[in-house]
Amino acid sequence: MSSQMEAGVAPRRLGIWQIQPGGLAGSTALIDGLDVESGDRIVDLAPGTGDAGLLATQKNIYSWTGVCADAAEAGFVSGMVPSPVTRTQTGHPDHTGLPDESATVVISEGLLAGRDADSQSAVVGEAARLLRPNGRLGLHELCLRATGLSETATAGIRAQLAEPANGSLNPLTEAEWCALVRGAGLEIESIEYEPIVVPSSRAVIRHNGLRRGRQLLRRAHSGGSQGAQAGKLVTSQSGRFAGIIIIARRPYVGALRVRA
What we know:
alpha/beta; Rossmann fold; 10 helices; globular
């Protein structure tokens, strides 16, 4: 594993901090794949530690808005993404409260695998609503590799991950992630994979510096033992998992899926 991948920090869903879809390399590939450029208005759903936000704000964008679960998280993220274009607000990733077509880019990183099917669909539907025509969605998630595995084996892994003691995770296969995105009326442009990253505390501090690294570790560890259990399960079956990066675009014409 490269030092860049080892340097990955806590993922978006607090409590499942031992697992990252693709680490810092994955976040970098996500921003590169989105072709983030000057003038982009980016909405980051549940920005977690702000890695993607830090990368995005280096691109001379117009704005970056992190939608956070509460005021404490919003304050934390503001400190992690220090930029004149940074803004945070409280809200839910499936009901952000932001206006229709207010973003040119929406980011969802390490968020959906911790949600059930209905919630996953609602979040992607909200992302589609926020996007302007020709806007881009960047999805970076935990992917269950189905190739070469029996349906029984895949079902067994899903059942284990879905247990509350293991973090109640619901990773999808590539085909299922793609169907979720297309179901919201978006067109897939590219798919990329990155290895799963399980960063050590030393790697987190080495990459982020002592002060920021300690902040990230304290916040990550606050999730308790579920993250440790999920991390052990995924790493013990590492060949079955990968980080998947999907770049999709809202078409210029055509109705989006209407959320009930």
